[in-house]
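User: Fold this; tokens only.

Assistant: Input:
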Amino acid sequence: MTVPLVQRFRERLPVSSATPVVTLGEGSTPLVRAARLSERVGAEVWLKWEGANPTGSFKDRGMTVAIGKALEEGVGAVVCASTGNTSASAAAYAARAGLPALVLLPAGAVALGKVAQARAAGALLLQVDGSFDEALAAARELDARGTHALVNSLNPNRLEGQKTAAFELVEELGGPPDVLALPYGGGGNTAAYARGFREAGEGLPRLLLGEAVDRAATAASAIRIGTPVHREAVEAALAESGGTVVSLPDDEILAAWKLLAGEEGLFAEPSSAAGVAALLRSPPPAGSRVVCVVTGHGLKDPDAVDRAFPAPASVAPNPDAIATAASS
């Protein structure tokens, strides 16, 4: 049985005996060796598979802490703005805690699988006629009014939970990797990893962040964020680690996404491959140890498969027809 993240890392989190443990079995996600990707870039590459979290993304690490603290503080409801993964996680953990959840979605910018999760968990979903930045501004105002508690990554408890992934990497590898490659949307996960490595006392790996060239309209919907709210923290971590941001066109992100599935067997959502795409564009020195954080499961965005791959061919139900089709 998986030990709840809050219990496993209790001494390193802002919780006490009065904090309810709201868990779905998050954390302790697989670290998978990527043999073919290692060969491509001449490095030792590992994949931190955060799609194995309960709602299919890394957001669950932070949400277990944020929702537990919301219960402790006696809030009546929670709110988030989301391009998808936060909505699914907030809705699930709020349901687990018995709290109403309000989700503000930027119109036309959220993948179907993520909306389906939030709807199934009973959240109230409202589609905002505007961008993610505008939806987040509205969510922050509701938080300021005291009607809802914000559970976006601006809530410090979110980053506290997410930093635990760095602790796991240090445990699993015996220290930090040389390079940590991440998708770069709002920047909260980068800030959380940097915090975790600092607190582990091991120093930061060199950060390699993959962002979309066109942040506002990228096909990688989870990083479709025009203005990173954690930009200052990210820039500080980049300076400290000697890291860099790689701006990527969608075709490079999608090529890395296909590579993850086709060569490593890991079916992620397209945005999750942005760190891998950055690694392919900017390989590290030979022999480096690299961890690519793969942030969300491919079932989050099934429409991306329809857009990128041909539909199954039809065939008659007999072995000869099947063999002919398979060899063509």
